[in-house]
Amino acid sequence: MFIFEKKSKSKCVLRATAFLMLLVMVFSCVPIAYAGATDVQQSNNNLNMTGDEEGYVNSARDIRNSEVLTDMRGVWIAFVDYKNMGLYNKSETVFRNNASKMFAKLKSDNINTVFFHVVPCNDAIYPSEYLKWSKYMFTKAPSYDPLKILIELAHENDMSFHAWLNPYRKTMKKSFNPGKESSVDRILDIVNEIIDNYDVDGIHMDDYFYPSNGQFKKVSVKKRKKNVNNMICQVYQTIKETDEEIMFGISPAGNVSYAESIGCDLKTWLSKDGYIDYIIPQIYWSDNYKLNGKKTKLYSKRLKEWNSLNKNDTPMIIGLALYRAGVKDSLDKGWKKSNSVIVNQIKQEKAAGCQGFVLFSSSYMYNKSGKKEMKNYRKYIKSTLQD
Fold first, then answer.
1. What residues form DSSP beta bridges with 202?
2. What is the pLDDT of residues 242-251, one digit of tens each?
């Protein structure tokens, strides 16, 4: 069920009304509507399937998402990871081989969901009508489609694939204006392009909404939330109109006050339908953090705070800072003092009733500083899956 503010005159409301009218039409002639929908999906995904095989594609996505939204073991693969994972500026053969090795490693570590950076900075790792090729993956346009290969390999390894995009980022220092409908239209074009042409399991956004560099410093927090909500609900509806089994989720900053200051309307997202399917707060602190000169169990404190916000039982997965494992930090000493921070945080999110975790990021699963932390992680995850 979609719930919106009655006084809103945004496209969001108009789309919601149109969608509800469409539902009435669909349920009055299900066989015709179903045939049309499957024909479109087959064309867009270049699938040479019919009948039961085509139904299997949808069923497979539904099964994957159902599993990962109850016990997600995820990882973010960011644009800064491309080189470390052997994906930067490669021929198709080398790209496929290295990507295959990457997914095999992740599978051996019992990862069941990848959040892959497909639109990092107003660019794309796939042939786009609206965006240039990403310089973070290629020096010039390749002769193949990397995203198609990545999704194919993820699914071969029984992993859910969520296309991660930064919605407003124009350059690393500038953002598109979230208050302009042209910015929303741009995002919708990109989302449509992805879900129409690729068999993704989800669309994913992180916390780059209103930039913290003061570019739009005169815009109030209330106005920021309204503008971001306008975009979020339109994206949600666009996805569901295409395929209701495709998930849409957001990963806000773990500091609730900061997340709200850049436009995250957490109370609305976590109390009303029609905005998100899951949320992944980035709770990137240990329980040995120095706050105002005193040792604070900051991870535990913020995990409890996020849980208290969740009024409509939105699947909540916790983002964990693997990149900090083994690193010395004068304020957050826990990461250097212990090699079981990640394991303990996973245990806590499970005890709190959350639906899993996502590690940031893939490179740190295999680097030197996180080696001991990952050894304990592998031992723990293996034991939980055997129980």
1. 162, 247
2. 999 999 999 9
